[in-house]
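Q: My labmate handed me this sequence with no annotations at all. I'd like to see what the chain might look like in three dimensions before we decide whether it's worth expressing. Could you predict it?
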Amino acid sequence: MITTVINLADYLGESVDVFNQDNKLLLFSYEDVDGAFLVDDTDNVIDISEEDVQILESDEETQTVVSQGETLFPLLEINSVIEELS
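A: Here is what I predict for the chain of 86 residues:
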């Protein structure tokens, strides 16, 4: 299979490190689009439920996050990324 790879650091406006053996590809399939995110490294993969998802709003922005105990993780919505890059 040949697929599009999105460098997640570049997409998020972060500095892009040199590729190394810790880089990982996170494959996804959304509707009729297959692709992959290139990430620097992964600590672990977690399962989330709808109850874990929260929307945080401020005057400047709205952020969707996942709550795992005391820790909040930003949630990347694949459909938004695909729409933005199309």
